[in-house]
Design goal:
This protein has 431 residues and is mostly helical. The chain has a single domain, classed as Proton glutamate symport protein (Orthogonal Bundle). It is 82% helix and 0% strand. The longest helix has 33 residues. The protein binds aspartic acid. Aspartic acid (ASP) binds next to α20 and α22.
Length: 431
Amino acid sequence: MTGIFGRLRRMQLHTQILIGLLLGAVAGPVLGDVAVRIKPLGDAFINLLIMVVVPLVMASLIVGTASLGDLRKLGRIGLKTVGYYVVATALAVALGLVAGQVFDPGAGMDADVKARMLSDYAGVTQEQLARVAEKPSIAELLVRIIPRNPFQAMAETNFLQIIFFALLFGVALTILSEQRRKPVVDVLESVNDAMIVLVKLVMRVAPIGVFALIAAVSAQFGYGVLLTLLKYVVVTIGTMVLFTVSFYPMSLYLSGMSPAFFFKRFYEVMVFAFSTSSSNATLPINLQVTEEELGVSNDVAAFVLPLGATVNMNGTAIYQGVSTIFIAQVFGIGLSAGDLLTVVLTATLASIGAAGVPGIGMVTLTIVLTQLGIPLEGIALVVGVERILDMTRTAVNVTGDTACAIWVAKTEGELRLPEATRQATDVARAS
Ligand code: ASP
């Protein structure tokens, strides 16, 4: 026994995490109630990560901006990032729509099955609908980015507001004299370093946290619903996989990084996003891997990744594209070319205002449905498999953020590839 544990302990952390994930998936249904009872271990793990994220983002963004000392550069990075995010999100929705049209996931659903699902999940749907925020105008969205109280923004983990304040704070520091600026920057640098140490400590219990989270999900998962919705689930996940193995490698190629190298180092972050269903909770580990293992400078990563956790959700965008078509098909509603364009626009905007927390993609899906006049009860058709789709789309969402950070860093000359990376990239180029 000690032999096994000894060997496990010596294993690389990311291998341990993967084992936690696989064991959790297999053990969940066997453990049943026990799996549900150990879920607090997983929740505690998520809380530990979320606990770190606000001070980490705040400190590293302020230090990053204050050390940039060049506002034009900040503007350039901002424009590139937003441009990349908008293009990637719109392409993702469009791909979701195409996949929906080609594979008809909702065609031919049995009328009885449909009626049963609509009534089974009616309660859940009402709960979801109650969470639907009103659709704000673009002007309102912009105004809301300015926090009236930065501490409240931090208390609510509102990344857009936190980023807004941190950037301005960093800019203000650059205007101060060196003598006044230095003490603040020194303190924040130490806060940043301390948070990174904390993340590394928390990561040591990640295998257990991931095991508990996945075991609870698989113990509770309704495999019957999965079977009924198999086509919809396969089309949605298949499209996300397609996007991940086509768009990101293209983007990485433009950045001069080998996709094989990228995924080898990054898959740990994807496993994490998959287990927690939350881009926010994944942010601390994503920052660490993107900077230390993939060579993106802190200036770029500290800005691009937190922004992406809120704004850039490629997986969610694909999910919204496929789901809209699926629900419309089940209700027998035809969508015109104009409608499809509306989906691209609305889903892109909807994903921008949504936070990177579990289940938000289904809430914002209602905005898209409303825009097209599709009955919101349609949510009842997809809610049964929401969790597995949420996990998958979160893994894609965080991949998109880092692919963007790598590209921006490359174009800014701030991609400092470690020696091993360079060799891997050269080999990939040569072949
Ligand atoms: N859970 C996703 C995320 O955190 C958002 C979503 O629900 O689509 O990135």
